Amino acid sequence: MPENTRLHFTQTLRFKLLLASLSLVMIPWAGYHYLSEMERSLRQAQEVLLLNRAEVVANMLATNDGDWLADDSVTEAAPVQSLYVHPLRSPPAIDGYDEEWFDLKPKSRQFRANATDADAVSLQWLAGFYGDSIYIMVEISDPILIYPQSERALSRGDHLLLALPGPSGKSRKYRIGTPAPGWVNVVEYESNRQQTAINGEWQETEDGYRVELRIPRPLSAGHLSLSAVDIDEAGANPVGIASTSGWDSNKNLSRLVMPTMQVDSLLHGLDGKSHRYTVLNRERQVIGRYGKLDQAVDTNTLLSRLLALLSLSAGDRELDARKGVGRLDGPEIRRSLAGEGAVYRYKIAGSKSLILSAAQPIMVKHRTLGSVVVERSTQEILLLQQSAFERLLLISLILFIITGGTLLLFATNLTRRITQLSNKYSRAVSRDGRIMEKVQAVKDKDELGELDRSFSAVLKRSTAYTGYLESMASRLSHEFRTPLAMIQSSLEIVREERAQGSGSSYIERALDGTRRLNLILTRIGEASRLEQSLQSSEKEKLDLTAFCSALCDGYAITYPQVEFTCRLSTDPLWMELSPDLISQAIDKLVGNAIDYHQPGSAIIMEVENDQSEAVHIKVKNKGPRIAESDVSKLFYAMESKRENNDHQIHLGLGLYLVRLIAEFHGGSARVENEADGVCFVITLPYRS
């Protein structure tokens, strides 16, 4: 029976069907692209709605008397500098410390006396308003701190110079200083008179000093200038001045930009839960703000990070949500101040969310006085997309597991059935084409069942034809015997009548030929009968050790001129065997060994149990070895390597019958060349 070839896993049906199941990944791929298109469509729709909302707010502000957008308090040219004043939730304590300004400190502005001088004095500006007061907190970097000797001589030490709008276009200037840390003195620049409406606190810092001021809002009239005067030697001229702007005239003062109460009251009526509204003047300075954006959610899960990597959303610029800045800029804002509404997307730094920013111009009497910026986060769309994608991946994973598992089970069952079919018919037919056993076809109503039934029908026809060929020897023997008997009897009569004639030698030769033909037919008949008897032979349980010992004793009696040696175990070896067939097989091996053994040498008979569920019956003899090219052919029918020197008929059927008997018992037969002879082995499966 041919050995089964073991296929590599990549060549099996299971692997191929598993590869086919990978086509299921097209489901999440198509779903992802669908979700991306959906997200793009939703974002475009959101942009249109946001632009319409900005237009509605701009029209509302324009119809509510837009004069507050124009700054008419200063009729001169536009100021050279603008300072943003933040709205405060509560008035800070004037103590010179910055604890209450921590939230606003990242939005402070710095002014230096000399940008190229690393040691130049610098001023850090931060301002806010609450009610009718403006609160200013400035930090001055000054490595050499000089205090004046008295509040009447503030100009002889480090001090601040405050300029406020005055009459006739000329500013009013005040010196702010102190002889020691604590409450500051505010005196007029020229008359040195005290100004009690302005108060503040002076505290030293590691880099210089800090001053916290409170100024009545009406005094500023929306403009001021604040300068830090650096004195490194008492009474000497200033070595540097860090100023927010010029201070000689009103037109040089910095402009204070702060949200107005009128704008705030209008914006507070809008939806501020998910939108942020910002009103800008023509200088893009914030004069009103209301609302907040959606907070970004935590996306630290593996699936969320995977979605973030696959996300197609991207902004052209990154920003930190534009929080708290006093002046906005962007493509959409510039276009709106040019009279055209626009929308733009910004990427939030450190997030995959976007800010949609829609800007519309505030038009009053065909003049663009400002802009309304409405912002909204795409977090809602991102969460919707993420949630849908998570469900899609979960469903796809479940489908992949179910479908892939089903295909794998189907492939495994299919492979099992095909393997069983192959093994069944491999066992049914021997390597030399003989039918070993009957095959029962399955009743499965599919292609494999139909294939099994077709194979079974073919095997039945082959069995019938093989039976016909096997019975041919018997029929030929029967047909040949009669004419041979007639020839033999006739020749015998002729021989008797012409015993003294010259043709007696030919008559003897003819008689010898008829005897040889009769012997050939007899041997063929024996082989045919043995093959047929194998199908009906019954096995019985016998002790192989005792059985072989009895055979060995019988051979010693039958062939007294030959020495026999038996190497058998003392333990019984019980097996299911056919005694007649096993004795025939051993008889033929012993007869073969007697014919070829070296005179004077012993024939050895062994029975071995190798503990691997196999028993080996060996017959050894010293004598000529067998050519390696003939070893694989000895056990086939009609194969004989004898030289016929004994004038006997050898058809090569003896070892063939040995192989048939071994295979009938589920074993095999082989021959091995040894150093000084030959060993024939019958291997039988052992089941205790």
Task: Give the structure's gist in a few sentences.
The protein is α+β, with helices and mostly antiparallel strands and 688 residues long. The protein has 13 helices and 27 strands. α6 links the parallel β17 (318-319) and β18.
Give the topology.
Blueprint: H1 13-21, H2 26-63, E1 82-84, E2 86-87, E3 109-112, E4 122-130, E5 133-141, E6 159-164, E7 172-177, E8 182-183, E9 185-188, E10 199-204, E11 208-216, H3 217-220, E12 223-230, E13 240-243, E14 254-257, H4 261-267, E15 276-281, E16 286-291, H5 302-310, E17 318-319, H6 331-337, E18 342-348, E19 354-364, E20 367-377, H7 379-428, H8 447-497, H9 504-534, E21 540-543, H10 544-558, E22 563-567, E23 574-577, H11 579-596, E24 602-609, E25 614-622, H12 628-631, H13 654-664, E26 668-673, E27 677-685
Parallel strand pairs: 1-14, 2-4, 17-18, 22-24
Antiparallel strand pairs: 3-4, 4-5, 5-11, 6-7, 6-12, 7-9, 8-10, 10-11, 12-13, 12-14, 15-16, 15-20, 18-19, 19-20, 21-23, 24-25, 25-27, 26-27
Helix pairs in contact: 1-7, 2-7, 8-9, 9-13, 11-13
